[in-house]
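Q: Please design a sequence for this.
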């Protein structure tokens, strides 16, 4: 019940802003993105993201944040644990980053228009030929607009976030990195799934940890299967560390609240 009321509260705090910005720039920019520079669209989007996240009681901790702010078009690979994962990356990076999103995301009210407006590319996971076309579109955007892209190679969010490991990575996701001939940054993240589940007086930890950066010249040494295996191994190795960090964070907070339900399975 408390979670429900918190979501309702956040909704009413943010709805006026969402409605205003939807008609002011999201709708026109999503319909005709070619008419608006990517910098303009991204800055508008990032301000909205920062506003929304400010309404959540989140403690965001980022290691090597500079690697998440691309100095040149970059491909980012990460595990996927919550619907708000993309928002946290946008919050960290003042330079344009967008996402390779599943085509179903287009149908989400407001959010579908928003992610299109900031340059996201939509992928049909059932059609490998369309996937190649989508990657080509992303590569073209990187070269013409200087935008960077994030892709979650699991293909969907991790359901058992306390399992201490990721779902299998799809090697085809790494085709974008080899096509773009751009640096590849591998990072791990954890905790965003708590965004709407805070207990009174308690904040939740969201972690983002850059694990490795592979320059374009280094990528030539790997095929997509090897890249997938390597990235999965890196993130799986770091996953238990993030869970332990969260455990210590919760236990270290001075609060009389009982541990939330999500914590019981990890003690």
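A: Design:
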């Amino acid at each position: 019940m408390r979670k429900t009321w918190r979501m309702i509260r956040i909704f009413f705090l943010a709805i006026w802003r969402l409605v205003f910005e939807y008609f002011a720039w999201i709708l026109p920019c999503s319909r005709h993105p070619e008419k608006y520079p990517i910098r303009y669209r991204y800055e508008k989007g990032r301000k909205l993201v920062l506003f929304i996240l400010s309404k959540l009681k989140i403690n965001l901790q980022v290691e090597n944040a500079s690697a998440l702010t691309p100095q040149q078009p970059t491909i980012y690979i990460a595990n996927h644990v919550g619907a708000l994962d993309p928002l946290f990356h946008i919050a960290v990076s003042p330079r344009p980053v967008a996402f390779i999103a599943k085509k179903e995301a287009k149908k989400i009210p407001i959010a579908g228009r928003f992610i299109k407006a900031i340059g996201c590319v939509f992928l049909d996971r059932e059609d490998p030929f369309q996937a190649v076309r989508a990657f080509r579109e992303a590569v073209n955007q990187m070269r013409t607009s200087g935008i960077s892209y994030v892709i979650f190679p699991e293909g969907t969010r991790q359901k058992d976030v306390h399992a201490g490991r990721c779902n299998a990575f799809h090697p085809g996701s790494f085709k974008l990195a080899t096509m773009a001939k751009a640096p590849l940054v591998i990072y791990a993240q954890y905790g965003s799934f708590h965004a709407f589940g805070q207990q009174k007086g308690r904040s939740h930890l969201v972690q983002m940890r850059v694990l490795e950066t592979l320059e374009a010249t280094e990528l030539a040494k790997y095929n997509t299967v090897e890249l997938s295996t390597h990235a999965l191994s890196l993130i799986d190795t770091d996953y238990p560390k993030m869970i332990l960090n969260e455990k210590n964070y919760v236990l270290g907070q001075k609060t009389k609240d009982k541990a939330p339900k999500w914590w019981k399975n990890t003690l």
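Q: Thanks. Anything notable?
A: The chain has one domain: 2-254. The first strand starts at residue 58 and ends at 63.
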